[in-house]
Design a protein that fits this description.
The structure is a single chain. With 169 residues, this protein is α/β, with parallel strands linked by helices. It contains seven helices and five strands, in the order βαβαβαβαβααα. The protein has helices spanning 19-31, 51-62, 77-84, 96-112, 132-140, 151-161, 163-166; strands spanning 7-12, 34-40, 68-73, 88-92, 117-121. The chain has a five-stranded parallel beta sheet with strand order 3-2-1-4-5, with helices on both faces. Helix 2 (51-62) packs antiparallel against helix 6. The longest helix is centred in the middle third of the chain and has 17 residues, at 96-112. The protein is globular, with a radius of gyration of 16 Å. It binds adenosine-5'-diphosphate. Residues 12-14, 18, 20-21, 23-24, 91-92, 94, 98, 123, 127, 130-132 line the site of adenosine-5'-diphosphate. Adenosine-5'-diphosphate binds at residues 12-14, 18, 20-21, 23-24, 91-92, 94, 98, 123, 127, 130-132.
Length: 169
């Protein structure tokens, strides 16, 4: 394997980064020399956090891992992978329900970039039900989210949603 083959790109919305995402980044960090968590900037999609905020929150969460960094990108993930020199894209499979969409995307990405491999990793069972939308919904209504997101993300959610969210924290 050449050195660039040991660089993996982990793309997604990460609005915000959860402990499920962190679990995956941790697994990827063991398998690859370097991992870049890449925040997709899609102006057509409304997001709670700006791409810059998401990148900053990811950087703080992955700092202890040592070989994981974060960036944001616009456009196709295959172009981002090519630009950074990654030959592997890491995505997560939580349940069978993830499969169809991920399968379609993987085949499209392979068509767009034949040299690219897509590696699917499964998170620890305790995170299989976690997703960013659910976290935002719970945080917005003051539910407890500790243990489900990195500490900095929890603080950022409290700051976004204010006093209402603080009740359950
Ligand atoms: P996208 O909009 O690209 O699906 P997400 O931020 O929802 O972005 O997810 C990014 C990647 O992380 C996807 O591959 C997704 O399957 C994976 N993922 C999301 N939530 C979890 C979780 N709880 N555990 C493991 N992987 C997850």
């Amino acid at each position: 394997m050449s050195s660039s083959r040991r660089l993996a790109l982990f793309p997604g919305s990460f609005d915000p980064f959860t402990n499920g995402h962190l679990d995956l980044a941790r697994r990827a960090a063991v398998l690859f020399d370097r991992v870049i968590v890449a925040v997709a900037h899609n102006p057509a999609k409304t997001s709670l956090f700006t791409p810059e905020e998401r990148v900053e929150l990811i950087r703080r969460a992955v700092r202890p891992l040592g070989n994981v960094s974060a960036m944001h990108f616009a456009g196709l993930m295959v172009d981002c992978a090519r630009d950074v020199g990654a030959h592997v894209i890491v995505r997560g499979l939580r349940a069978v329900s993830d499969f169809e969409f991920e399968f379609q995307m993987a085949l499209m990405n392979r068509r767009l970039s034949p040299g690219l491999e897509i590696a699917f990793l499964m998170p620890s069972q305790e995170y299989t039900y976690l997703n960013s939308t659910l976290i935002k919904e719970v945080a917005k209504h003051g539910g407890r989210i500790d243990g489900l997101v990195p500490v900095e993300v929890r603080k950022a959610l409290l700051a976004k949603f204010g006093r209402r969210a603080r009740r359950g924290a």
